[in-house]
Amino acid sequence: MKMMKKGLALAGTGALALWACTMQEVVRDTEGPDTRTDAAGVGTCDGPYPNYWQDPKFTSTGMWMGQDVSNQPPPGWTGPVFRLSQQYPAQLPAPQPADEGWRAVNPFDPKLSQAERTAAAEAYTWAVMRYLQAGNVDNGANGGDVSKDWTLCNNPVRSWVHIPFQTYDPSSGREFMHGLTREAPVTFTLKPGGQQLKTTVWAVGFYNPRAAYALGTVWKPDGQARLPARDMAFPEGAVIGKLLFTTATPEQIPNLENMPQWQANISAPSYCACTPAPGDGGSSSTCSFQEISQQCPRSPGTVTLLQFDIAVRDDRSPTGWAYGTFVADGIQKASEPNPWNRISPLGLMWGNDTPPADSLALDYPVDPRQNGFAQEVVFWDVADRWNAHSNGGHLGCNGRLNGPADNARSSCLSCHMTASVPDKTRTVPPIFDLSSTTGQCLPAPGGPTTDAVYFATTQCSQPFQGGSVVPGPQYASGRKEWISTDFSLQVSISMVQWLEWQADQVDEATGPRVMQGLLPAR
Q1: Centroid of chain to Cα 255
Q2: Among 323, 338, 291, which residue's Cα sits nearest to residue 401?
Q3: How far apart are CA 315 and CA 318, in angstroms?
């Protein structure tokens, strides 16, 4: 993907030379019928892809071959059943500036003072949140049942979609009630006393119409995926939201009080880990899909809203993206009538504040709490409220933005810029390097080389550059650079699982299935 440099005249801020991703790589092919509708919400949940792991509609395909079934609605079930919103527009929808309130503020302007940047970042994040909630939270916002919110299929305002094929891996595949996928194990250190609390994060993401168009370049209405051969690009104005729920309880972490709760069909709250059976030559290194289904069965449990991530393709940003994180703030926001607004922004970032050559990310910038960042805003009072009860307000490396569900040695953009198309070994770049001696975000004599890779400020649609730290890909085409999925780890995850399914139909149709590819993980 060639990058195109633009000068944009920004009202009230002067002109800035900023990057924008061209759309030449997301021109849709026209082979085969395309009957999709672009109408807001209506009919978006009919399509060819599985709704959740062990969806009975796909039993006949052998997709769940040999597995113990624990993720289907039981007989007589009257609760929610997740439907994948999977109608991707055939043409790129026009922007709707009147609805996109974040365009009225510009936190990316380097001329802003810290106070001005902070105010602009807060206005920006809440404008995106209002856009995300429109038509998606009417039940809870009006005093109704929050379990009926975020269904997407019935949104009367605009079409939102999910991403397909986060369903094949038994460990992480979507559960059947709300379509949550299992993410990272998170251990909280509780205060006072230092008790270690092991929890699991379960999450679901959704994409606005312009983002949905980009997904449709990969996921076709004939039920097939066409992996990009060149760097993928989301169009300007694409918006992505992600709900992250925790198995921790309000009794354990008071910040979770008064937050929305869902019933979800989950595995062990403390994060189930499968133990492979011994093989002929000793213990196997990987559980089969059947073993995972047996050792990590699903059952109904309660999860509580922990974090809400947002991402916006914005040409005013020096990277082309803005990533934000809200966190549960149920005590501070107890009087808020809309339960989905009992959150507070933890921060907004649009670059990694890349350390100078041969410098450590842990030492740069100097004292960001006092001096601020150049390419992000952190709301320290929100982090402090979390840290009063646990280490959940940890942020990322040297205070860069990362939420309580994320790794303290990384950052939002550090993780997401690695997002790539899997190669022929079904491998993608690791999202962080946690080597004990040279990994990222370590004190001297840590790894400036590793920091230079993981805290680079990468532009939208630019391939991840691993240098000497991350091996290059093995694409069948012979391409030496990673093919970018434009900061979307969910696209990478879905592609790995799709390739696993394709390979299993050919190579392992009669044998045990194991995850041979590498799934990006938080």
Answers
A1: 22
A2: 323
A3: 8
